[in-house]
Amino acid sequence: MAERAFITAKVFKWARESAKVTEEIAASKVTVPVDKFREWEAGDSFPTIRQAQSLAKAYKRPFALFFLPDIPNDFQPLQDFRKAGSKELSTSSIFIIREIQQKQAWISEVNAENREDIVPFVGRFSSKDNPVLVAQDILSTLNINPLNYNTNNPILKWIDKAESNGIFISRTSFIHSRLKLDSNEIQGFAIADNYAPFVFVNSDDWNAPQLFTLVHELAHIWIAETGISNDLEPSIKKVKDYNPIELFCNEVAANALIPKEFVENLDTIAFTSAQETFKNAKIIGVSSFALLVRALNLNVISFNSYKKLKIEADFEFNEFQKREAEKKARQKQKEKSGGPNYFLLQLNRNSRLFTQTVLDAFRGGYIEPTQASSLLNVKVNKFPKLEAQMYR
After folding, report:
1. Which of 16, 122, 178, 216 is the least crowded, having the fewest Cβ atoms under 10 Å away?
2. Res. 262 pLDDT band, cuts 50 70 90
3. CB atoms within 10 A of CB 143
4. Residues 195, 112: contact at Cβ < 8 Å?
5. 129-161 pLDDT, tens per residue?
6. What is the three-state SS of the chain?
7. Percent of the chain having pLDDT more than 90?
8. Is 137:215 a contact under the CB 8 Å cutoff?
9. How large is the average pLDDT for residues 15-37?
């Protein structure tokens, strides 16, 4: 007879509920009837050790947690700055937030214990300040010129500059192959910490909106407002469904990414068609929509021109999405045998800066192999393959 796991029922139930997993799904993970699973949560019977281990893995919790006498203090939910009416956070969103919180808490504690200098720009401003000044300070601090990226993928430049200044940037679109992140639900979040500011960007989006999300979340760091965001884009004047903090950070991002002088100095032909708008938006790495809204807010184009061009741009974007979907399908077919590079995906998910910090601590003997492996989501014997991706 299989050995039973004498778990604490209320902790066992809390672990499932905090992971946003239904009783039905949890029961299916260990192939038992729902009624039997409910007995475990009520404390009337107990799962086997193997069943409890499987559920700990499904809930993204340590197995030992089930045996605690009481519900532990968990990471506090992040402030929800998302647009009014956004759906409740799903399991995948809960898991990625908790994962980043764990990474951030570890590195913050390490930096504090080592008496590292605090990151000087965290909370340098507040939402009462002028967003133009905040945008200028971000560009100056990171040494970025939005009119001269010298790359076809500006977001990589922003990430490199941010991490060079002590901001950890994580990007992913999945927890695992069957649990993906929805960009409509969560586009990004920021943890504004004096020792280890962390930014997450959902990569289930095109590069242009990802870049806007990244700079929006950097604005959260600059005003020390930790929280989750979605539906990020330049705003047309004031939008009642948006949190004031989000409107402020959108304004900062718009000023940083789409300089006023760039828009005002564009040739008149720039806003004669969606194709021309797209061509100019691409120069600075933003979407056509972002450039149109910025031009409208700066009174460079009229509202009627904006409406006409937006309809055209929406049509062009839909056609672009179809072409990209076909291209991805063909690419997927080619990659079927190998699939995407696992180590590159984990490197982006962990943050390059975080990965290097953990590897240095591991090689210096400051942390145990199991902890290093857990922090990086990679087996210890695969560390060389992970590290190799950092220098490609």
Report:
1. 178
2. very high
3. 9
4. yes
5. 999 999 999 999 999 999 998 888 899 999 999
6. CCCECCCCHHHHHHHHHHCCCCHHHHHHHCCCCHHHHHHHHHCCCCCEHHHHHHHHHHHCCCHHHHHCCCCCCCCCCCCECCCCCCCCCCHHHHHHHHHHHHHHHHHHHHHHHCCCCCCCCCCCCCCCCCHHHHHHHHHHHHCCCCCCCCCCCHHHHHHHHHHHCCCEEEEECEEECCEECCCCCCCEEEECCCCCCEEEEECCCCHHHHHHHHHHHHHHHHCCCCEEECCCCCCCCCCCCCCHHHHHHHHHHHHHHCCHHHHHCCCHHHHCCHHHHHHHHHHCCCCHHHHHHHHHHCCCCCHHHHHHHHHHHHHHHHHHHHHHHHHHHHHHHHHCCCCCCHHHHHHHHHCHHHHHHHHHHHHCCCCCHHHHHHHHCCCHHHHHHHHHHHHC
7. 64
8. no
9. 93
Asked if residues 119 and 195 have their Cβ atoms less than 8 Å apart, the reply is yes
Cβ-based burial of 184 (10 A; exposed 0-12, middle 13-18, buried ≥19): middle
Show me where the domains of the chain are located.
Answer: 9-67, 91-257, 342-391
Gap between the Cα atoms of 370 and 362, Å rounded: 10
Question: pTM of the entire structure?
Answer: 0.86
Over residues 303-352, the pLDDT tens digits come to 999 999 989 888 877 877 777 667 766 666 655 555 678 899 999 999 99
Mean pLDDT of the chain: 89
Q: Which CATH number fits domain 9-67: 1.10.260.40, 1.10.1200.10, 3.30.50.10, 1.20.1740.10?
A: 1.10.260.40
Which amino acid, one-letter code, is at 300?
V
